[in-house]
Structures are given as C-alpha cells and as structure tokens.
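Appendix B, record 7
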Amino acid sequence: MFPQKKISTYLIKKILRCFCIDVDATRTALLIGVNRKTVNHYFLRFRIAIYAHRIQEKRKIIGQAECDEAYFGARRRRGFHGKLKRSRGTLKQPVFGIFERHGEVFTEIVPDCKKQTLQDVILGKVAAETVIYTDGWRGYDGLVAVGYDKHLRVNHQKNEFSQGNGV
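Structure tokens (predicted):
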C-alpha cells in the first residue's frame, strides 16, 4: 500500500540514545514518533552489534604479547611529594595493557597492580602458548607457575626495550 519509508540518521541516533538510557521500545516509539516495530527492529540491531563486539573481545591473544602497567592522573607538583607518587597510596589510576604484536591493544582499568590482579587479567585474555614480554615488575612473578612457559623479561635499566624478531 504505502512505499517503505526510510528512517533518517537523526531518528536512528535518537533511538540509540533511548536505547542507551534503557527506555523501553513502546515509550521510545511514543517519544520519537515512529512505529514500535521500527524501534524494536533497531533495538535488535543494536543488541546484535553489542554481542558481536563482545565475542570479538573474548578472543584470546595468541603469538607474542607485551604486558605493562601505567598510572594515569595528575602530574606531580613542585614541593608536593606525598600524594601523587606511584604505587601504593597514590591518587593516580592504574591501567593495565596487553599489546598483541602485529595486532590489537587491550587495556583495562585495574584497582591495583598486585600480582593476583595482573595474573587474573592475563589468564583471561592471553592463551597459554603465547610468548609474554614484561618488565621487571614483581606483579609478573609467577607467570610460569600458572602455565605461561614463555615469559621473557625486558630490563629497561640496560636500555633494553624489546626482544625477538617480531618488533
């Protein structure tokens, strides 16, 4: 009867905004002024895209991986030594990263850089047959004991920044 009407990107963005703030399809249709079935169609497409993204992130890293932790936050101010230091007692946020050589980067905000915290992230993201390159941080001690036979350390004090031919 009626020719199929295409929906504008403006309306798609409004539907996406309602999806993000968890407004149901019926109320979204009333707010935006489109058919409820159209809103349900786009909600389904958004859910499928989220699912595909999560499946891709679940893939474990295989090959060669570099692991490192960093602290992000305010810079140290002159004459203010105590509060903005590294490690324990800092106001900075620790972030742990895994770099797959010739691949992607995975980062995660962690509560601390303790051994158990870092090993839990590595166990969840890196396959056991992967060669892991880390620095001398004590949080990486024991990776061989949990199943990573190829754990190599990089000594930054000797101006060593990578090992192997894969760089």
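Remarks on this record: The chain has four helices and five strands. The mean pLDDT is 83.
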